[in-house]
Amino acid sequence: MTHSSDAAHVMSLEIDLQRPVVRRDRAAVRALLHPDFHEVDSTGRVWTVDTVVEALAVQTGYVQPTVTDLVAAEVTPDVLLLTYRDAKAVHSSWWVRATGTWKLRFHQQTRDVAGSSVTAPTVVEPAAPRIDK
Questions:
Q1: DSSP output for the chain
Q2: Mind listing the pLDDT tens digit for each residue in 1-35?
């Protein structure tokens, strides 16, 4: 079960990261990202806090995308998984609450070629590790 106030707050933070005024502000972006943040973009490139902060600050021609199908799933009380789509990709974001503040820990974009719809994710408990002898 997702606590609706946490989910709504984290969803608003995700949208904030897409606003041009926030993206240009290095301090604002850094404040939203976990120190160990990583992103895998739709080309497979891996980004870190520093590379994202710098790339967004100097990005030109950016138009804020329209987000659809935004849903949140509570993994634990301090971890939320967001999924959504825009015109180009399906996105997933892992947000963690660290010292009382929500931070984006991981983001992945997958190019949307099939036009499939995003549905609420199902969180599955990991199976016990299998050890072959």
A1: ---HHHHHHHHHHHHHTTSHHHHT-HHHHHHHEEEEEEEE-TTS-EEEHHHHHHHHHH--S--PPPPEEEEEEEEETTEEEEEEE-SSEEEEEEEEEETTEEEEEEEEEEE-SS-PPP-PPPP-PPPPPP---
A2: 456 899 999 999 999 999 999 999 999 999 999 99
